[in-house]
Each structure stands twice: as C-alpha cells, then as structure tokens.
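Note to self: keep these together.
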Amino acid sequence: MKKLILAIAFIGIGSFAMAQTTNSQDKAATKAEFRQKRQQKEQEHLAQMQKDLNLNQGQVDKIKALHEKRKAEMKADFDKNKDQRQAKMAEMKAKRAQMDADMKQILTPQQYDQWQADRKAKMEQRRMAMKERGMKGGKMHKPMNTAAPEVK
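Structure:
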C-alpha cells in the first residue's frame, strides 16, 4: 500500500514538473512565433510600399534603415522609462491595497466578500472584452478592421 501511494505521489510530482517545463517552453515558442510574424509583416509592409509608391531599391534600403533606427530609439526609450513604470505600478498597487483596507473597515464581512466577488467578475468581463477585441495587456494584439463601415 505504501508503495502504491509513493508511486502515485511521484507520478503527480513528475506531472507537475513537466507541466511547469512545458509552460515555459510554450511561452518561449509563442514569443519566437510572435517575433517571426512581426518581422514578416514588416517585410510585407515594405514590399507593399515599394509596389504602391514605385520605389527603387535604394529608397527601400533607406526606408528599412529608417525603420530600424526608429525601432532602436523606441526600445531605448522603453528601457529608459522602465524604472518610472515600475515605480508607478508600485504606487498604484499601494493605493489599491489602501482602498481595499478602507473598504474592509467600512463594509461588513458579507458586504466586503460580495464587493470582492463583484470586482473580480467585472475584471473578468473587461478581460474577456479586451480578448474579443484582440487586445492583450491593453495593447493591440491583432489588427482591427479600420475600413469605413459599409453604407447601404
């Protein structure tokens, strides 16, 4: 009986460890896939510009260099402001915790539990709405239809 329980425990632990490894591998694969798709879209956009504007190869090379320069500048700005973003996030988290503590003092335990449940439900609704619109973390994840609505 002990051997059976031990075997089940080892299988469970092994499965959990494999799930953790797979999750990190999935994230890496997703990130690589995203980078590849983004690079492909950039190339397609450049090819479309070349076709639409009748650009020569020298112009295409200059535009490509300009895009790369702009991308590097944006990354540098993003990295430069990282500390500010983290400080702002910590400040917001502290304010949220303070509001939570204040609400806990004002509400009865049942009201507080209901308030927490309502907050979680609303957050999940917003998350699903963003997912439906193709957004992830407040940023565009896939292009929205920007064409003007058809008038009948």
